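Feature request, filed as a ticket because there's no other form

It would be nice if the structure record came with a short human-readable summary line next to the C-alpha cells. Right now we just get the raw output. Example of a typical job, pasted below so the devs can see what we mean:
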Amino acid sequence: TWGFRVHQDHQHLSIQSLHESIEEEFFELSKAHYERYIAPGAVN
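Raw output as currently delivered:
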C-alpha cells in the first residue's frame, strides 16, 4: 500500500486545485532544468 498526505498548508485546496498546483510547479522545475542543463548545449 502506498499513498501520500497533503501538507497542512495545502489542505484547503480541492483535489483539482492541488493537481493543478503540482502540475504548475513540476512544469516550472522541468523548465528550469531544461534551461540550465539542456538548452545551453542544444544543437540549433
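Something like this underneath would help us a lot:
DSSP finds one helix and no strands in the chain.
Residues 8-41 form one domain.
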